[in-house]
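User: I need a structural model of GGDEF domain-containing protein from Cryptosporangium phraense for a docking pre-check later this week. Nothing fancy, just the predicted structure tokens so I can convert them on my end. Input:
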Amino acid sequence: MTGPHPDYLSREDYARLQESTGVPPAAGGLLVAPIAAAGRAYGVLSVAADDRLAADARLSLANWGVRVAEALQRLELTAELTFRAYHDPLTGLANRALLESRLEDALTRIDTSPGAGRAPARPGSVALLLLDLDGFKQVNDVHGHPAGDELLRRIAERLRACVRDTDTVARLGGDEFAILLTGVDDQGLVEATADRVVAAIREPIDVESARVSVGVSVGVAVAEPGGPVGVRELVRAGDQAMYHRKSLRTGGWTRYQAPVGA
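Assistant: Understood. Predicted structure tokens for GGDEF domain-containing protein:
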């Protein structure tokens, strides 16, 4: 196609287009208009026609191509803005807002207390792991902030590899992360995940031509079905467990012992 105007393709001419786009065969030829806006091509609009199609029909098809492209641009912009609002720009992980939204939804689903008026319960517990890196400041001080940023991105990749597709990994800010596990039917899953996280982060990481090592202190809090337990309560329990672990200066993970919400 040439330019922003519709082109007429004979039956023989559009064989390659049909092969690559799935455009169905048409009697006679095909009038094809680009779907393009702001210098970006999204695809084509096509209609069975012949080369005698009136000029106003050609113009109408071209206008529809522009309208469709503009609509696609708006959808892309909305999707991009939504992603930015709920994801950390450095690592691409969920941010605090998205984590809390998913945590609230998960806790609502397991709250089966009488008269709660909740949605049908989903089997399994909800577990929240709060992570604070050990030794991250030294990496920034010795190797610079670019190395620190690269370390955080690499940590994010390792955390994703430690969880299921249905779990949420979030960066809360600085060197603080969180993992939300839902539908936990076996408490061994929580322990195994915490073990994987600690082991993965302790492995040396190459950043900015340097090999660095950091540790992590993890606090684990679990909400069992039958609540009610709120977001703040679960986060507070995870924080207490994490700070207790951090005070030991050994890294690793600790589970909050008192019943959450008690």
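Before docking, keep this in mind: The chain has seven helices and ten strands.
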